[in-house]
Amino acid sequence: MSEELIDEVEALNSIYPGCMEKKSNLIYDLTVPDLDAKIQVSFSSTYPEERPHLLSVRTRSQDEAQTLQLLDDILTNVFVSGQVCVFDFLESSREVLESIEAEILEPPSSMDNEKAEATEEDIFAGWIESDPIVDRKSVFIARAAQVSSADEAADKVNKLKLDRKIAKATHNMTAWRIKQENGISFQDCDDDGETAAGGRLLHLLQLTDCWNVAVCVSRWYGGIHLGPDRFKHINSSARDALVKGGFIDTPKDKNGGKKSKK
């Protein structure tokens, strides 16, 4: 057993008493703090030069094989050869397992009844979808829809979130601009936890002079921080949906035609 592993076990157990329990020479049970979850980890004699391996996981999840794969992906992302990684792995795993446990324990709500009643056709009616953007396991998909009032925009966005996959997105960032026949205009945006993202979407609508449109960008976080690149993907996917929906002028085609704004 390496000195680095001995020191790491001691350090972790001082932070979270009893969280690393030795089962055999190089196998430990890792208890996730504040959760009913235990991960069995095998270390090599050369750790931290070599990546640890996950042997099993015990959680509230009914699909422990899928949970084990998810945690293994996290371990791959945090491991850097030559550096101890258990603390970073533990903290990242706790975030994921907290989300899984919260979903399992969450009681049925009126929203669940609405989801059951709403058909896929109702939810996605009028929305134009962008091509997905995938970067370091994060996925971005934007949707744009024509709207004529702020109430209609809010209603369409709320209905979109009835879809189970979209509801589970880490962020659903939105913006809309409305111009009525009398010249009165409205605009609004929502970051949904991604600071400044809604404002950037609204700025895109302003730059492209888009009116009477709502745009929603969903992001599913993949466990790796993207930094400023996330805003590039948010804008790129939104623009793609706006172009596909005809809300942004596209370059002339070979016959000289030009797609007009809605």
UniProtKB/TrEMBL annotation:
The places in or outside the cell where this protein is found are: Cytoplasm
Q: Which residues form the RWD domain?
A: 7-100
Q: Name one Pfam family in it.
A: RWD
Gene Ontology CC entries for this record: cytoplasm
Tell me, which GO biological process terms does this entry list?
Answer: GCN2-mediated signaling; regulation of translational initiation
> Its domain of life?
Eukaryota
> What UniProt keywords apply to this chain's record, in alphabetical order?
Cytoplasm, Repressor, Stress response, Translation regulation
Family matches, as Gene3D superfamilies: Impact, N-terminal domain (3.30.230.30), Ubiquitin Conjugating Enzyme (3.10.110.10)
Q: Which family does it belong to?
A: Belongs to the IMPACT family.
- Output this protein's name: RWD domain-containing protein
Organism whose genome encodes this protein? Trichomonascus ciferrii
Species lineage:
Eukaryota, Fungi, Dikarya, Ascomycota, Saccharomycotina
